[in-house]
Amino acid sequence: MHCPFCRHTDSRVIDSRTADDGTAIRRRRQCPECGKRFTTVESASLNVVKRSGASEPFSRHKVLIGVRKACQGRPVSEDDLALLAQKVEETIRAAGSAEIDAHEVGLAILGPLRELDEVAYLRFASVYQAFDSLEDFEAAITLLRAEREATGHEPDSSGIAPRT
């Protein structure tokens, strides 16, 4: 680690703490050359492998964009979307792998989105799972109804299933 003040090639760690809900480590460092202190933040990289084989860093922002499109016109707040994106990232990081398939990201989105808004879930699933017929929609709706009946959760007047 180079000192940002004198560019010396070494530094000493004085203090380490977790940051960002445990996904990063904040380190206080001191340069042995000039004596100045500075902070670094370290986080584990998480890459998404796309269908094409290309790899790119995981982006919570991209999750938000996709889910926001599915929730367009639905009674879902930005806070709800941010919480969903955080849940997705936590689920993916909990797998403990440095690389994850894009397909797995989509699967991690489907569960929390179904809990948030069933209509948005169907919209997202129709694109993600490439629905190409009415039968695909009917099958997804039948599955949603069966799960709702099994858990005893009925949506309120807004069409949103109660959160558990």
From TrEMBL:
The keyword Flavoprotein does not apply. Negatively regulates transcription of bacterial ribonucleotide reductase nrd genes and operons by binding to NrdR-boxes. GO terms for biological process: negative regulation of DNA-templated transcription. One of its GO terms (molecular function) is DNA binding. This is Transcriptional repressor NrdR. Residues 46-136 form the ATP-cone domain. The keyword Transcription regulation applies. Keywords: ATP-binding, DNA-binding, Metal-binding, Nucleotide-binding, Repressor, Transcription, Transcription regulation, Zinc, Zinc-finger. Binds 1 zinc ion. InterPro entries: ATP-cone_dom (IPR005144), NrdR-like_N (IPR055173), RNR_NrdR-like (IPR003796). Its cofactor is Zn(2+). It comes from the Bacteria. Belongs to the NrdR family. It holds the Pfam family Zn_ribbon_NrdR. A zinc finger (unnamed) spans 3-34.
